[in-house]
TrEMBL record:
UniProt name for this protein: Fe-S cluster assembly ATPase SufC
Species of the source: Tessaracoccus aquimaris
Pfam families per the UniProt record, alphabetical: ABC_tran
Keyword match Nucleotide-binding: yes
Lineage: Bacteria, Bacillati, Actinomycetota, Actinomycetes, Propionibacteriales
Gene3D superfamilies xrefs: P-loop containing nucleotide triphosphate hydrolases (3.40.50.300)
Presence of keyword Aminoacyl-tRNA synthetase: no
Family to which this protein belongs: Belongs to the ABC transporter superfamily. Ycf16 family.
Length: 254
């Protein structure tokens, strides 16, 4: 069982000119086995929501709560959040020069479990998830994200997701910069992860394209720092047809 609950979450981005409120009361509950999609226009605060939940230092939660299986995570460090079972795949992954994919994964897994994984099975597990992402074995020796193509970055992220197998995953723009083949491979990885049945997935996206491959149980429309509408899968089709304009106008007039 996994439940991720976001309650009246308010949060700022920290800029050089001071703090700017971006999140204006986000409410969302994701139960075990559910995939929720958040869709919204550029600049509406979707990535801010992901970063704030993940504990990125540039974003601060000013009120509200985020609980994973009843445990408040907003006052935890980034590492503690990861150990609590939260995983964030970022829209703009960072390069870690000099650290190989294999070592990065091993370090992350060791930090999560509190002990190093067994060498034999570990190597096989890594090879398996890389193969699942259509990545060659040699990929494990490359520096994390250094010179990775857009597609390789996303494949690497989902390989991480499958290997670390957290309780809850927040995937921000996992579809951006992917060609159709990569999109399929990446989506299949997310589906393998979510189909375990007791995971919570929050999929943040700007386009409906990825939702052809990853079928969300619920779709939320995100405008100006909050959820303004929600529905089933069919809402994504409505957004595809009509865009966000009516929501943006309604939010501006509110
Ligand atoms: P989305 O992911 O929906 O496109 P973001 O969360 O990236 O939206 O951005 C929401 C708002 O916060 C935008 O107006 C953006 O310019 C601002 N913002 C986000 N991060 C920063 C930052 N590090 N510095 C200044 N402004 C930021
Ligand atoms: Mg509020
Ligand atoms: Mg974004």
């Amino acid at each position: 069982m996994t439940t991720l609950v976001i309650k009246d979450l308010h949060g700022d981005v920290i800029t050089e000119e001071g703090n700017k409120e971006i999140l204006k009361g986000v409410n969302l509950t994701i139960n075990s086995g559910e995939v929720h999609a958040i869709m919204g226009p550029n600049g509406s605060g979707k990535s801010t929501l992901a970063y704030a939940i993940a504990g990125h230092p540039k974003y601060v939660i000013t009120s509200g709560s985020v609980t994973l299986d009843g445990v408040e995570i907003t006052d935890m460090t980034v590492d503690e959040r990861a150990r609590a079972g939260l995983f964030l795949a970022m829209q703009y992954p960072v390069e870690v020069p000099g650290v190989s994919v294999a070592n990065f994964l091993r370090t992350a897994k060791t930090a999560l479990d509190g002990e190093a994984p067994k060498v034999r099975t570990w190597v096989k597990d890594v090879e398996k998830v890389l193969a699942g992402m259509d990545l060659d074995k040699s990929f494990a020796a490359r520096s994390v994200n250094e010179g990775f193509s857009g597609g390789e970055k996303k494949r690497n992220e989902i390989a991480q997701l499958e290997l670390l197998n957290p309780k809850a995953a927040i995937l921000d723009e996992t579809d951006s910069g992917l060609d159709i083949d990569a999109l399929k491979v990446v989506s299949e990885g997310v589906n393998r992860y979510s189909e375990q049945g007791d995971r919570a997935v929050l999929l943040i996206t700007h386009y409906t394209r990825i939702l052809r491959y990853i079928k969300p149980d619920f779709v939320h429309v995100f405008v100006d720092g909050r959820i303004v509408d929600e529905g089933g899968r069919e809402l994504a089709d409505k957004l595809e047809a009509n865009g966000y304009e009516s929501y943006v106008k309604a939010a501006a007039n509110a």
